[in-house]
Design brief:
The structure is a single chain. The protein folds into 2 domains: 3-78, no CATH class; 94-415, Purple Acid Phosphatase, chain A, domain 2 (4-Layer Sandwich), CATH 3.60.21.10. The strands form 4 sheets. Strands 3-7-8-9-10-12-11-14-21 form a 9-stranded mixed β-sheet, with no helix packed on it. A 7-stranded mixed β-sheet has the order 6-5-4-17-18-19-20. Strands 13-16-15 form a 3-stranded antiparallel β-sheet, with no helix packed on it. It has helices at 14-17, 24-39, 55-78, 114-126, 143-151, 178-181, 186-196, 237-247, 275-281; strands spanning 3-4, 10-11, 94-96, 100-106, 130-133, 172-174, 203-206, 211-214, 257-261, 288-293, 299-302, 314-317, 324-325, 337-340, 346-348, 351-354, 357-364, 367-374, 379-388, 391-398, 406-407. The longest helix has 24 residues, at 55-78. By secondary structure, it is α/β, with parallel strands linked by helices. The protein contains 9 helices and 21 strands. Helix 2 (24-39) packs across helix 3 (55-78) and helix 5 (143-151) packs across helix 7 (186-196).
């Protein structure tokens, strides 16, 4: 069960969250089990050395947690998913940001681990104008989990930007993802969006030189026993229509796009690829400069690549708060991964665990600088992009820590 600090903050041990499955049933089981354990009386622990639990205590715990899980799981399956939020005129989901602005991105942060809180502190240290959480509050995105591990102190760090009108960008945003939808989206749609004053789960932040387009790839997540048997991850039809009629309606708008989503289009590590997401975006990928995604709990960067004729520069930043399994290796050599972070941070349950971290973007007129920063506030790598006269050029700047990353291809492939 989560420990508590002197300030009352809930902290989950890494072994509690390591290996959380991509399954609605099993995620809800972990939620139910944690809630039951937390409510068990702790008085016995104050009476001296711990004693082996009696069989009836184990049976009582099991029956309570299983019953709670069954009720939660069945009610989630038969309860209507929270309604999908859209923009009503005159709102468009397009928000103006300054020409000089900094943005912190992290995914899979809502774990409540010490590493996640360290990443939060590292984000605060760079004092970004805007912060964007790219999805997954564990285990099931319930109201209570959103309050405990995202909204309450130490909450997800807020950006310093203050919107002066409804068309201006705000300081903090959150995306929807699969773990949010295992509870039917109750925590995300009923707690997070109102707290952040965010209308919908997709949006575009733009200035004179760049556009940051954020998508909802989580809403259609399968909530059954195992998503392995049914992969229906895709964009909602309203999200697709918004892209066509609002974001990319002007074919002459060549401002480069920084694309954000929770799920990956392809992967060199994971057997799951979410091709329906990429299929919906094929008409627009020629305008995408960088695509950041999460879902896989690692930091990795790819050379330009795509499926079905589309090509993108992909960056996986799903290492926001979940223990990173550095034992996982490249499984598909036909996916051109350039680097990934396999440094060992600690040993958890006898297995090597890596560092968590985030991406820090600085947009300064036509220039974009991307820094990959870990939970110890170490800058691992820096990309510099410039868009002038319709041409995007990139430069890679290695830091002293870059040599500790695992490099699979020439470093220049990252910025081709």
């Amino acid at each position: 069960m989560p420990a508590r600090t002197a300030a009352g903050t809930k902290v989950r041990a890494p072994e509690e969250v390591k290996g959380v499955p991509r399954s609605g049933a099993l995620s809800l089981w972990r939620t139910a089990k944690e809630e039951v354990v937390e409510r068990m009386p702790a008085a016995a622990a104050m009476e001296g050395p711990p004693k082996p639990p009696r069989m009836r205590d184990r049976v009582a715990f099991f029956s309570k947690s299983v019953l709670k899980w069954v009720v939660k799981f069945v009610s989630t399956l038969f309860k209507r998913t929270r309604p999908y939020r859209t923009y009503e005129a005159p709102a468009t989901g397009m928000f103006v940001m300054p020409d000089r602005v900094s943005i912190a991105l992290a995914s899979d942060w809502g774990t409540g681990t010490a590493s996640a809180y360290a990443v939060g502190d590292a984000i605060r240290a760079v004092n970004p104008d805007i912060t964007i959480h790219m999805g997954d509050v564990y285990y099931s995105g319930t109201r209570e989990e959103y309050r405990d591990y995202f909204l309450d102190e130490p909450a997800w760090p807020h950006g310093s930007l203050v919107a002066s009108s409804a068309s201006d960008a705000a300081g903090t945003y959150a995306l929807n993802a699969n773990h949010e939808m295992y509870s039917g989206g109750e925590g995300y749609f009923e707690e997070a969006l109102p707290a952040l004053k965010q209308t919908a789960s997709y949006f575009c932040l733009h200035n004179a030189h760049w556009r940051v387009v954020a998508l909802d790839t989580g809403y259609h997540t399968t909530r059954g026993v195992m998503i392995v048997f049914k992969n229906d991850t895709k964009l909602h039809k309203a999200n697709i229509e918004w892209l066509e009629k609002t974001v990319f309606a002007d074919s002459g708008d060549r401002r480069p796009v920084i694309l954000l989503s929770h799920h990956q289009w392809f992967s060199a590590f994971d057997k799951h690829e979410y091709r329906k997401v990429g299929d919906a975006l094929l008409p627009y990928l020629d305008r995408v400069a960088l695509w950041f995604w999460g879902h896989e709990h690692r930091l990795a960067g790819y050379a330009p690549f795509g499926l079905r004729g589309g090509v993108v520069r992909a960056r996986c930043i799903g290492h926001g708060g979940m223990p990173v399994d550095v034992a996982e290796k490249v499984e598909r050599t036909d996916r051109p991964v350039v680097f990934h972070d396999e440094r060992e941070a600690e040993i958890v349950d006898g297995e090597r665990v890596g560092f968590c971290g985030f991406a820090h973007l600085r947009l300064e007129g036509p220039e974009c600088v991307v820094e990959y920063i870990d939970e110890k506030q170490t800058v691992l790598l820096r990309e510099q992009w410039v868009h002038r006269e319709g041409r995007l050029t990139g430069t890679l700047v290695k830091t002293p820590a870059s040599s500790f990353l695992a490099w699979h291809r020439p470093e220049t492939d990252l910025v081709r």
